[in-house]
Design a protein that fits this description.
Layout lengths: L2 E3 H15 L3 E5 L15 H5 L4 E3 L4 H13 L3 E4 L11 H8 L2 H4 L9 E6 L24 E3 L4 H13 L4 E6 L7 E3 L14 E4 L4 E5 L2 H14 L5 E5 L2 E3 L3 H11 L2 E8 L4 H12 L9 E5 L8 H7 L3 H12 L2
Helix pairs in contact: 1-6, 3-4, 7-11
């Protein structure tokens, strides 16, 4: 059993699900002949042909919009937005059509569409290829959003999303593509339940709530603090919409303290929503204010030194957790 990377898990799962269900098809910019700008879709054109692996024009509106009609006639489309930064031209199709049709038609039409969205910084992509824009969709009923942080969940959440009858935005972190590995047995059908967070590390002093690449930085911080007698419970959200509120509340009720960590700017970010939930549902169990550690309220920087400064790292996370634990 060989260890595979995060991007290998995505590629393998796409192959397996497209073999399993011939109503699936892939569409996106450079996804066919080129195999994807990150090579996530390599080999799919050769395996399934140009009718199921479609190189689209540079039009995110088209990529998302045509999947609505395809879903209505029984297909299970797998569109790719090459970089999540460029999802905005497809905003109307995603928000007003994909997210609404199942409700609007009283369940007559499902929208089993999984939109893969490479997101996040740390790869030197600059302002237009590094953003964390998940908060744009947080208040859209009918959408589901998942963000795998591990190789196993990259496979398991993608499989669950493809098999779901709801439209899913699948946020895959570019920094994780080739930086982490795990042993996934060939042929094992991994399915990660959508809507369930994961307690990645148990602890009793403070809860850290995060997802994506920053899960790994948070785990490093938690291990460092353990040597000083501060035990951090780390929650990997995995599903961003809907949030697994019960798991969050259970953990914070136990520790009495919470730090929410994400890459996106603080203003309007997912951390504010989680902090509000804790204030409403967990006020009497809190022993300190909920702290947020995030990116800055600026555009994502281009210079490598500024990118490193912008993104929270293990040292900064440890400092925020320590300050909260000792409050």
């Amino acid at each position: 059993m060989a260890a595979i990377t995060y991007i290998d898990a995505i590629n393998r799962t796409l192959h397996e699900e497209m073999r399993r269900d011939d109503t699936t098809f892939l569409i996106g910019e450079d996804t066919g002949i080129y195999g994807g700008v990150f090579k996530a879709t390599r080999g799919l054109l050769e395996a399934f042909g140009p009718e199921r692996v479609i190189d689209s024009p540079i039009s995110e509106s088209l990529i998302a919009g045509m999947t609505v009609g395809a879903a209505m006639v029984g297909c299970r489309p797998l569109p790719e937005i090459q970089f999540a930064d460029f999802i905005s031209p497809a905003f109307d199709q995603i928000v007003q059509q994909l997210a609404r049709y199942r409700w609007r038609t009283n369940g007559t039409y499902a929208m089993p569409v999984t939109i893969r969205c490479p997101w996040g910084g740390g790869v030197g992509g600059g302002v237009f290829h590094s953003q964390s824009n998940e908060a744009w969709f947080m208040n859209v009923p009918g959408l589901v959003m998942v963000a795998p942080s591990t190789v196993r969940d990259a496979a398991g959440l993608l499989r669950a999303a493809i098999r779901s009858d709801d439209p899913v935005l699948y946020w895959e972190h570019k920094k994780l593509y080739r930086s982490i590995k795990d042993d996934l047995p060939e042929g094992e059908e991994i399915v990660t339940e959508i809507g369930r967070a994961h307690v990645a590390r148990e602890g009793g002093d403070v809860t850290a709530i995060t997802f994506g690449y920053l899960l790994h930085e948070t785990l490093k911080a938690a291990e460092a603090l353990s040597g000083d007698g501060i035990e951090v419970e780390v929650i990997d959200l995995r599903t961003l919409l809907p949030l697994d509120t019960p798991t969050i509340l259970e953990s914070v009720s136990k520790t009495g303290k919470a730090v929410v960590i994400h890459e996106a700017p603080k203003v309007g970010g997912i951390g504010g929503e989680i902090a509000a939930i804790l204030a409403e549902e967990c006020f009497w169990e809190l022993d300190a204010p909920v702290r947020r550690l995030t990116g800055f309220n600026t555009s994502f920087p281009a210079a490598k030194t500024m990118e490193d400064y912008y993104m929270p790292n293990a040292g900064e996370i440890a400092a925020a957790l320590r300050a909260t634990a000792e409050t």
